[in-house]
Design brief:
This protein is an all-alpha fold. Helix content is 73%, strand content 0%.
Length: 262
């Protein structure tokens, strides 16, 4: 092989490598944008449904849009619409505050992620949601996590508010989101975000304990309470390491045989 053949071979290898990088390589930025895009589509769809349901329930369109802008919490908004339609505004406010109490530990967890400065924290607190928190916590700490939180929070805000406004314009055409399966979009997205974060045994144990507690108490307690009770699973993470290891330690064989002999 002469020097010309070697040069052509190296040039072809570089071209193929460049094509692979431009075409199908999964970069961190691309992964963030893909996740943000998928969640934004789901948020817009649910927002359209919320706006339509609010108008159909007799809620003024401006109030439905204001709820999405200032409350920015789908679960409490749907709950409030039902209570307002039933003529119980005080219960709607109380239930909304109770359901959104989970944002307090969210804010504590994201204190270093949102950024320094008063304005960054004020604006960032408005962008906190189940999805933006789960998406950010699934990223490595540092600049990438901060960028993921802000990108996701801003995109979800525009998608949710815009979807609500569009739903208000549509009126009662969309109807119940469960008819189209839209009510499962957010839970499925949250599950996909949370599962990769359960890497170690202690975190998995805390998550499973909280989920089991919420599942058992959901038929027995008002909406929002099981979600708060599920935070009790975090107590497993504050146990001393020795206590956690002791609970997982197998019983010695000699002791087991002695117990059976008695």
């Amino acid at each position: 092989m002469n020097w010309r053949d070697g040069t052509r071979k190296r040039a072809g290898t570089r071209k193929r490598a460049g094509a692979r990088r431009r075409g199908g390589a999964r970069t961190p930025e691309r992964e963030i944008w893909q996740g943000v895009g998928a969640m934004s589509l789901a948020a817009a769809a649910i927002g359209v449904s919320f706006g339509a349901i609010a108008v159909a329930a007799g809620i003024p369109g401006w109030l439905a849009i204001a709820m999405s802008v200032f409350i920015h919490a789908g679960g409490s908004q749907f709950l409030a619409v039902g209570m307002l339609a039933a003529g119980n505004p005080f219960a709607a406010v109380f239930a909304g505050l109770l359901l959104n109490a989970r944002h307090l530990p969210f804010g504590l967890a994201l204190r270093d992620t949102v950024g320094e400065g008063r304005w960054a924290r004020l604006i960032g607190s408005q962008l906190i949601s189940d999805e933006s928190v789960a998406f950010a916590m699934g990223q490595p700490q540092g600049a990438r996590r901060r960028r993921a939180f802000w990108m996701c929070g801003v995109a979800l805000t525009f998608a949710w508010d815009g979807g609500t406004a569009f739903g208000v314009l549509l009126g009662g055409v969309v109807g119940d989101p469960a008819v189209y399966g839209l009510d499962t979009a957010f839970p499925a997205g949250l599950l996909a975000l949370v599962v990769p974060s359960l890497r170690d045994r202690d975190t998995r144990a805390a998550a499973l304990a909280g989920a089991a507690l919420a599942l058992v108490t959901t038929p027995l307690l008002p909406a929002g309470i099981p979600v708060l009770l599920s935070l009790a699973g975090l107590l497993l993470l504050v146990l001393p390491p020795a206590a956690r290891r002791a609970s997982d330690r197998p019983v010695p064989r000699e002791r087991t045989e002695e117990t059976w002999s008695r």
